Amino acid sequence: MRHGGSGSSTRKPLYTAAERARRDATRWTLVQGLLAPFQFLVFLISAVLVIRFLLTGNGEQAATVSIVIKTLTLYTIMVTGAIWEKVVFGQYLFAPAFFWEDAVSMIVIGLHTLYLWGLLTGGLTIHQQMLVALVAYATYVVNAAQFVWKLRMARLDAAARASAPDSSFHLESGVPAR
């Protein structure tokens, strides 16, 4: 996004001052900060087990259990993330700052749910179930990268605020800038 006539490229900060304050004050930020790396660890273990099963035919039960655990972890982080988004942005999902991350999350959830449907109904063969899980995992990697990018943007915003002269208040009125 470009502002002004200088040609310099600036972007809107990820959080307003009020959103940043709510983000920093809520326990749901810590919950997300703990669940995200846990989910990634579960994903890594499960991906290895699924690939091992597909390559060797060994470990079907371990792969299946790992996908169920990954799916339950995903559902947990999605619910707690929606609560976090409500606290910080005032809506449960699709806040403008995280719209595309939430959109891709819906695809990830849909694929994991398709896996569970196939497992519970027998509507997919074991091979198809494992392939659905791998597609879900590939989509999850894209989604995780989106969130890592947003975390980096938030850190860059914080660094820019820390190095800039205090521009959080209008000098004349003492009112927080927007």
Helix proportion: over 70%
Kindly report the oligomeric state of this protein.
Answer: single chain
Q: Sketch the major β-sheet.
A: none
Number of strands: 0
Q: Tell the overall outline.
A: elongated
- Element order, helices and strands? HHHHH
Average of per-residue pLDDT values: 87
Task: From the alpha carbons, calculate the radius of gyration and give it in angstroms.
Answer: 21 Å
* Backbone structural class: mainly alpha
Number of domains: 1
- The number of helical segments is 5
Identify low-pLDDT runs. 1-8, 169-178
Distance between the termini: 16 Å
Strand coverage percent: under 5%
Structure description:
The chain is mainly alpha-helical and 178 residues long. The chain has one domain. It has five helices and no strands. It has helices at residues 17-25, 27-56, 60-89, 99-121, 126-163. Helix 2 (27-56) runs antiparallel to helix 3, helix 3 (60-89) packs antiparallel against helix 4 (99-121) and helix 4 runs antiparallel to helix 5. The protein is elongated. 19% of the residues are buried. Residues 1-8 and 169-178 have low confidence and may be disordered.
